[in-house]
Amino acid sequence: MPLPVNDIDTDQIIPARFLKATDKKGMGDNLFADWRYNADGSPKMDFVLNSPTYSGAQILLAGDNFGCGSSREHAPWALTGFGFRAIFSTSFADIFRNNSLKNGLLPIIVDEATHQSLFDLAEEAPSAQVTIDLASQTVTLPDGRKVTFPIDSFNKACLLNGVDELGYILGFEKEITAFEKNQL
């Protein structure tokens, strides 16, 4: 799903009035609320999230500097709640990137040429599919071309195993118990 807007901040992703919630449930309904809905709550049909063409998309193709602004976990909650599993951009705000990784959303940084070719592809063939292989850190484009992307080994391991930081640590429960017994 293409959203070719640069400098999208977290307040645009999930407006501050929705930050009272401490539960992820329903956050996707408020994703891009000010862009997505009219004042009466009806959907703006010219906004990409409301387009049947991209219904069910799991990848958001965003402009440069996505997720800038204030720190809020609600932004990745809203994106994953809507159904996104990954976001492509040429850059992400550090806090947003870290919050995304901690919440199971994969931010993928691509070079400008690849970024533009993805936007071109979304316009020319909206139903075209790309394949993300986190294990090999590659994206396979419809023409077969593979593009690599960076991710640190810790976050990669957490995402591949479906755990957060605490879940990762709990994976060493036997070693932790053995260590604690030796400390007595």
Structural notes for this entry:
This protein has 184 residues and is α/β, with parallel strands linked by helices. The protein has a single domain (2-151), classed as Aconitase, domain 4 (Alpha-Beta Barrel). Helix content is 35%, strand content 12%. The chain has eight helices and seven strands. The chain has helices at residues 10-13, 33-36, 74-82, 94-102, 112-124, 153-161, 165-170, 173-183, and strands spanning 2-3, 59-62, 86-89, 106-109, 131-133, 138-140, 146-148. The strands form two sheets. A four-stranded parallel beta sheet has the order 1-2-3-4. The mean pLDDT is 93.
How do the helices and strands line up, and which of them pair or pack?
Layout: E1 2-3, H1 10-13, H2 33-36, E2 59-62, H3 74-82, E3 86-89, H4 94-102, E4 106-109, H5 112-124, E5 131-133, E6 138-140, E7 146-148, H6 153-161, H7 165-170, H8 173-183
CATH class: Alpha Beta
Instruction: Tell me the name of the CATH homologous superfamily.
Output: Aconitase, domain 4
| Global geometry | globular
Helix count equals 8
Could you give the order of the helices and strands? EHHEHEHEHEEEHHH
Structural class: alpha/beta
How would you summarize this macromolecular structure in one to three sentences?
This protein has one domain (2-151): Alpha-Beta Barrel (Aconitase, domain 4). 35% of the residues lie in helices and 12% in strands. It has eight helices and seven strands; from the N terminus they run βααβαβαβαβββααα.
